[in-house]
């Protein structure tokens, strides 16, 4: 009788130890997983993209060094660095925020931008799409609309989307277009291009359909009755005006502040 109780007791202890070990294992594994996801969400990444010669590298230098470069040449590789702006008036600690500037040619985008986005889209807190407002004619608008139709399916592919700042640079030229006008022109052009794409889709083969269907899936909610509206996207889109040369970038720094805070 006694020996049976003894046996039960010893079994109890082994069971007890085993379950403790199991519990600790479970806690360690889940905390590691949580830490990993938290870390991913907390790394604050911003990308600067836009057409050639719109001022990406000047903006990048201003944001990461506080100064403008003496001279820039067409970029052939990305620039990556920590955001370094005077934050005393914003009360926001930007010390872990990383900004990168991607070259604009399609070859360079295939090489650097798209691989970066497909790897790191979930840690991307925002995208700055900088345009030259003094060069914004119909052709320029067409280029930007096409570019956005490639980028938006990527930024809209995550829950809530990636927030976008369309920064209308070079407002120091008196010929520069106003953000409200640029907003309108872009919506009309994207509506037109999307309509063309859908019509081609009906006509042509399966391979085109593969591309089109993907585009439609993540973007179709933004086409209200066929009309594209930025406000219908999951990510928030802000049209900002400024001028890197004359240091008129307050609206953009406010935007960074807002996007890093939440
Ligand atoms: N007037 C004016 N010119 C600007 C401004 N910002 C940049 N520029 C000029 O625009 C040109 C392009 O500037 P970058 O910063 O090199 O532009 P980028 O977009 O990096 O160019 P790529 O790397 O070739 O795509 C340069 O000649 C700059 O001096 C601005 O706010 N006002
Ligand atoms: C910002 O945060 C970092 C750690 O994340 C800290 O080392 C640094 O002192 C902080 N800077 C300011 C100005 O609060
Ligand atoms: C994704 O981000 C990490 C960390 O910022 C970086 O090291 C890596 O090169 C990025 N991926 C690509 C394909 O650029
Ligand atoms: Mg550049």
TrEMBL record:
GO cellular component, as recorded: endoplasmic reticulum membrane
Named from the GO MF annotations, one term is:
GTP binding
Q: Which residues cross the membrane?
A: 15-34
Q: How does it sit in the membrane?
A: Single-pass membrane protein
Q: Where found in the cell?
A: Endoplasmic reticulum membrane
Signal peptide coordinates: none
Q: Which Pfam families match?
A: SRPRB
Q: What is the protein's major site of localization?
A: endoplasmic reticulum
Q: Which domain of life is it from?
A: Eukaryota
UniProt entry keywords in alphabetical sequence: Endoplasmic reticulum, GTP-binding, Membrane, Nucleotide-binding, Receptor, Transmembrane, Transmembrane helix
According to its UniProt record, which protein family does this protein belong to? Belongs to the SRP receptor beta subunit family.
Entry protein name: Signal recognition particle receptor subunit beta
Q: What is the lineage of its organism?
A: Eukaryota, Fungi, Dikarya, Ascomycota, Saccharomycotina
